[in-house]
Amino acid sequence: MLDAAIGSGRHERPCVFEAFARRLPDSRRYGVVAGTGRLLELIEQFRFGDEELSFLQQNKIVHSNTIDWLANYRFTGNITGYREGDAYFPGSPVLIVEGSFAEAVLLETLALSVLNYDSAVASAAARMVSAADARPIAEMGSRRTGERSAVASARAAYIAGFSATSNLEAGRSWGVPTMGTAAHSFTLLHDSEAEAFQAQVDAFGPSTTLLVDTYDVEKAVDLAVKVAGTKLGAVRIDSGDLAVQVASVRAQLDSLGATNTRITVTNDLDEHAIAALRAAPVDSYGVGTSVVTGSGHPAAGMVYKLVAHHNDAGEWVSVAKKSTAKASIGGHKAAMRTLEGGLATSELIYQASDGRPDAEGRDLIVELMTNGSADARWLGHDGTLAARNHREQALAELPLNAFRLSRGEPVVPTIYR
Amino acid sequence: MLDAAIGSGRHERPCVFEAFARRLPDSRRYGVVAGTGRLLELIEQFRFGDEELSFLQQNKIVHSNTIDWLANYRFTGNITGYREGDAYFPGSPVLIVEGSFAEAVLLETLALSVLNYDSAVASAAARMVSAADARPIAEMGSRRTGERSAVASARAAYIAGFSATSNLEAGRSWGVPTMGTAAHSFTLLHDSEAEAFQAQVDAFGPSTTLLVDTYDVEKAVDLAVKVAGTKLGAVRIDSGDLAVQVASVRAQLDSLGATNTRITVTNDLDEHAIAALRAAPVDSYGVGTSVVTGSGHPAAGMVYKLVAHHNDAGEWVSVAKKSTAKASIGGHKAAMRTLEGGLATSELIYQASDGRPDAEGRDLIVELMTNGSADARWLGHDGTLAARNHREQALAELPLNAFRLSRGEPVVPTIYR
């Protein structure tokens, strides 16, 4: 595309691209935007190095003038869009990229990869957080997604309200609180469960979490309290019928005097399994596969569409694909969430050139990148924490119906004005 | 775990870990191993740098002797396992890692991330390849998975039999054949569809593939042949009822004399949609979301378990988790695929120390890494191509039942001897 546009001379036309989702996955009621801060850093760093250029040249993938153009590439345009952590709905203009066709079209794959994956994780994670009803959830799914996606998913889950991750790299690069886990291999390595428990308590003190289901849960709970004392921090159960198991472990811990020892459970949980444990004496959850794979919907389904470009007279022309079910709406748009009494009533999308409608509500579009330079508020550890805090505020605006786990319509309608 | 094991002094015990899947996702009939070549390169490079070590130190995540140990870390053990591209079944010991507990346990997350993601993609892709019945499929899903997973999935789909990818980085780093695509934005950028088609034909000649569903398919097909002539390479349809659409476009192309112009379709295809188009005059497919997300199963579900370790007397002790549904089978195992008349009859798994059973069949375990050094046969472009070729041979051994898309049992039983 880039090569042919350079050939036709249209590559320098000023353009507006927009990333949005046509629908929410699986009839969910809202989505959570994530990936924005990570994406802005990747866009700032996006270059074509000698190895990439040689590959394109030697394989005759593009013409030599395109190689020259790519050698000097960096994105110099403007990006606006939703704050990371905000809710989104069908049609929400989550990311708006302004630049020449050439520089903006090159970002399509990167922007969608990041937003689709991270938003899929955050949207699933937010449902788990509300299902957990204020009990903490740790992200433990690194081994069930690509090795780099693992870091992104720890970050996205944290933005959505998870309390910690087992992915240390997410702690280092994004400031996500980290926690260790002991696997069954640690118990099996030692000559007895008692030796394994003692090794862990020696290393981390009695406040550690002991894994009690390697051999026999009841014996292991007895042993755990014997080794660590009644100050034992927590026991973890990773198998079995959790509702039954948890109640009996709670009773056993209490009878042993370990009334403050917490119970954490981690066996293939998703939002539905978490909700089903609401009445059980669970203190915290660990979630793996289901959160890093978007609980059945591992890609948010956002698309990146050209919505406007300059014509030869330098005037903006709105454009949209017209065929069949995938028709889109052209024009550089803006959005607000209309509110009544602090609660969202609609996602109101309008042409930016028409100006803000006269309605009560919150403007959703913020500046993300100006002339190729990212707004520092959204980057790094601070940006990640800001997104987490914004998610809490933004979801507090949604009607309670948003948090039902069953399938349904988006909790507010999208209105185009 | 590492920190506590260093504390207990058990970290240097020689150990054997094994990666395997307890079951195949969604009652599929076989899985395809992928990621091995990529993983071996990542293991060779796996180090803890100053930034990582400072993070661990400053946040008091591990003790200082563990920091010292990590500073010198590189994997020095042996890895054996299934050839990349081979079929696997429940219990198949896909990867066997031998080393000290400390050095082998550190690989758990990396090994599972790579194998679970890449094998999920390859296992889904292989079903699409058999559904396509020898018609080529291009991988176009980069935008629907994490930005690094996108490269891995292009590679895994190629190993499983896809013919090409739109991900240029997969071409550069793994030798996967690449192809360009024109999106609707390219058509919309130009002042008319005619101008866009002309720009593309000017850049790439008439053998290019023109996207014909931006406005009106019938008019676009007429225009495409008018602009490119009857030597037009292909038209692409990305929306609508494909079976109906394809038949009418074929008739239209033929009536225009473009009898050699191919038709490629790309609208949210998975293996079932591909199979449903078998009777339609489709020449090739492009698949995005469904292949990079494992067609509903984005993680292969492999686990990494300690199966044996030395005791203090230097003897091997088999170990296994005993609790409930997640019980595992201990011991350093090997595997063969028993064959009758060239067709697989079972996945036969045995204790390596017992020696190979006296049965007709193919040994499945090969050397992958020796003393921390990867076998060059499995690496880079050559290793990727070798995996693709091996996949073809390995799947040719499976009974025809393997290629049914409906749910069922694994096509051969796993037998432990």
List the helices and strands and how they pair.
Two copies of one chain form a homodimer.
Chain A: H1 2-8, E1 14-21, E2 31-32, H2 36-45, H3 50-58, H4 64-71, E3 78-82, E4 87-88, E5 95-100, H5 101-105, H6 108-132, E6 137-139, H7 149-159, E7 164-165, H8 168-174, H9 184-189, H10 193-204, E8 209-211, H11 217-228, E9 234-237, H12 242-255, E10 262-265, H13 271-276, E11 284-287, H14 289-292, E12 302-310, E13 316-318, E14 333-340, E15 343-351, E16 361-363, E17 365-370, E18 373-374, H15 380-396, E19 414-416
Parallel strand pairs in A: 6-7, 6-11, 8-9, 9-10, 10-11, 15-19
Antiparallel strand pairs in A: 1-5, 1-12, 2-4, 3-5, 3-17, 12-13, 14-15, 14-16, 17-18
Helix pairs in contact in A: 2-6, 3-4, 6-7, 7-8, 10-11
Keywords summarizing the entry:
homodimer, about 425 residues, alpha/beta, 2 domains, seven-stranded antiparallel sheet, six-stranded parallel sheet, 15 helices, Aldolase_TIM (chains A, B), glycosyltransferase activity (chains A, B), Nicotinate phosphoribosyltransferase (chains A, B)
Concise account of the structure shown:
Two copies of one chain form a homodimer. By secondary structure, chain A is of the alpha/beta class.
Provide an overview of this structure.
Chains A, B: Its EC number is 6.3.4.21. Chains A, B: It is an enzyme of class 6 (ligase). Chains A, B: This is Nicotinate phosphoribosyltransferase. Chains A, B: Belongs to the NAPRTase family. Chains A, B: Catalyzes the first step in the biosynthesis of NAD from nicotinic acid, the ATP-dependent synthesis of beta-nicotinate D-ribonucleotide from nicotinate and 5-phospho-D-ribose 1-phosphate. The structure is a homodimer of 417-residue chains. Chain A has 417 residues and is of the alpha/beta class. Chain A folds into two domains: 2-121 and 297-416, nicotinate phosphoribosyltransferase (Alpha-Beta Barrel); 125-295, TIM Barrel, CATH 3.20.20.70. Chain A is 37% helix and 21% strand. Chain A has 15 helices and 19 strands. Chain A has helices at residues 2-8, 36-45, 50-58, 64-71, 101-105, 108-132, 149-159, 168-174, 184-189, 193-204, 217-228, 242-255, 271-276, 289-292, 380-396, and strands spanning 14-21, 31-32, 78-82, 87-88, 95-100, 137-139, 164-165, 209-211, 234-237, 262-265, 284-287, 302-310, 316-318, 333-340, 343-351, 361-363, 365-370, 373-374, 414-416. In chain A, the strands form four sheets. The first copy, chain A, has a seven-stranded antiparallel beta sheet. A six-stranded parallel beta sheet of chain A has the order 7-6-11-10-9-8. In chain A, strands 16-14-15-19 form a four-stranded mixed beta sheet, with no helix packed on it. In chain A, helix 2 packs antiparallel against helix 6. Chain A is elongated. The two termini of chain A are 32 Å apart. The model of chain A has no long low-confidence stretch (mean pLDDT 96). Chains A and B meet through helix 1, helix 3, helix 6, helix 7 and helix 8 of A and helix 1, helix 3, helix 6, helix 7 and helix 8 of B.
